[in-house]
Specification:
The chain is of the alpha/beta class. The protein is 47% helix and 12% strand. It has an eight-stranded mixed β-sheet with strand order 3-2-1-4-5-6-7-8.
C-alpha cells in the first residue's frame, strides 16, 4: 500500500523534522501532541524549519557544496518549485491534541517520543484501539528495541522501527529495522516510504540497540561527556579537540545541543540502569564511565531550561 496520511506522535526535534519533511514531499501530515503546552513548544520548531528549508534552498541555488539531498536532486533542481513545496508543507501541516481524530485515517503512525519505556508503552496502549485496520506503526526510538513494545501496539506484524538522523533535509538516511513479528510486506512498505520522503533507506535486519548510526555515535558522545564529568576539561575544549583533530563538523557537546539535552539525559539514564544487572567485575569492565555524574550534569541543565538549540541555550548559547 502506498501511504498518503501520516501521523507523527511527538513534536520534539526529530518529530517536527520528520513531519515537515513528509509534508514537503506531499504527504498529508498531522503531528499529535499531548497538551496545549506541547503545541506552544512545537509550533516555533515548525516556524524555524520553514525558514531553514528556505535558507537551504537559497544556498543550494548559489553553491553546489551546500547541497541538501533531502530537498532536491541536483539534475532536476528548480528553486521556485522547491520554495513552493516549503510553503505548501507549512500551510498544510496540522497539529492535533485529539488522538482519535489525529489517527482516524492514518496509513502510517510514526512514534517520535522521548526515550522513556513507560511513556511509550502508555502511548501504544492508548493508541492501539483507535487505529484503523490499515495503519502501520513505526518507532523513531534511538536506543530502545521495537520488540519491547510490539505486544502493546495490537498489531505486531505491522510494527517496526524507522530511525532518522538529525537535520534530515541534508542528512537524509532512514534506518528501517524489523522485529521478530514484523511482516515482510510492511518492511517493504516502510522502505518505500523512506524513499518517497527523499531518504536513503538503510535495512537493519537484526535488532540492535542504537541501529547503525547510534551504535557508533552514542559511545563517542558518552566519551566526550565523561571527560567533562570527570573534570578533565570543558565542553568547548573537548569539542575543539575533536573537530580540529578529525575535521568533523561538530564535537560531542555541539551534537548534544543539536539533538536536545532531554534525549541525551534519557540515553544516559538508560545506561545507568544497566550496571546493577552485572557482577562488580563485569560492571567495571563494561561500564567505565561515571553515569551518575553524567546524568546529574544533564539534569542540572534541563532543570535550568537549557535544553539545547531549541531553547536558545544548552552547553552553548544561541542567538
Amino acid at each position: 500500500m502506498k501511504y498518503s496520511n501520516v501521523v507523527v506522535a511527538g513534536g520534539g526535534v526529530l518529530g517536527s523534522q520528520i513531519a515537515f519533511q513528509a509534508a514537503y514531499c506531499g504527504f498529508n501530515v498531522t503531528i499529535w501532541l499531548r497538551s496545549e503546552g506541547s503545541i506552544g513548544r512545537t509550533q516555533p520548531k515548525i516556524d524555524h524549519l520553514k525558514q531553514t528549508y528556505i535558507d537551504a534552498i537559497e544556498k543550494m541555488a548559489e553553491d553546489k557544496n551546500a547541497w541538501c539531498a533531502g530537498i532536491a536532486d541536483e539534475d532536476t533542481f528548480d528553486k521556485e518549485e522547491c520554495l513552493k513545496k516549503v510553503e505548501n508543507a507549512y500551510a498544510n501541516l496540522k497539529l492535533e491534541l485529539d488522538m482519535a481524530k489525529a489517527v482516524a485515517d492514518a496509513d502510517l503512525v510514526i512514534e517520535s517520543m522521548a526515550e522513556n519505556e513507560k511513556d511509550k508503552i502508555a502511548f501504544y496502549e492508548k493508541l492501539a484501539p483507535l487505529l484503523p485496520e490499515k495503519t502501520v506503526i513505526v518507532t523513531n526510538s534511538s536506543t530502545l528495541l521495537p520488540s519491547m513494545f510490539a505486544k502493546y501496539t495490537g498489531r505486531p506484524d505491522r510494527y517496526l522501527s524507522l530511525h532518522f538522523a538529525n537535520s534530515i533535509w541534508k542528512n537524509n538516511t532512514a534506518e528501517v529495522m524489523t522485529q521478530a513479528q514484523t511482516d515482510e510486506k510492511y518492511f517493504n512498505e516502510v522502505m518505500q516510504f523512506a524513499n518517497d520522503i527523499r531518504m536513503i533507506g538503510l535495512p537493519v535486519r537484526k535488532e540492535k540497540s542504537g541501529y547503525l548510526l547510534n551504535s557508533m555515535l552514542v559511545p563517542f558522545l558518552l566519551s566526550g561527556l565523561d571527560l567533562y564529568a570527570a573534570g578533565v576539561s570543558d565542553p568547548e575544549s573537548i569539542d575543539i579537540a575533536w573537530t580540529r583533530g578529525t575535521g568533523a563538523p561538530k564535537g560531542p557537546f555541539q551534537i548534544f545541543d543539536t539533538v536536545g539535552l532531554n534525549t541525551a539525559y534519557n540515553i544516559v539514564h538508560q545506561y545507568q540502569s544497566v550496571p546493577g544487572l552485572f557482577s562488580p567485575l563485569l560492571k567495571k569492565m563494561m561500564m567505565p564511565y561515571n553515569f551518575k555524574k553524567m546524568e546529574a550534569i544533564l539534569k542540572k541543565y534541563i532543570d535550568e531550561g537549557k535544553l539545547g538549540m531549541s531553547t536558545g541555550e544548552g552547553f552553548y548559547k544561541y542567538n
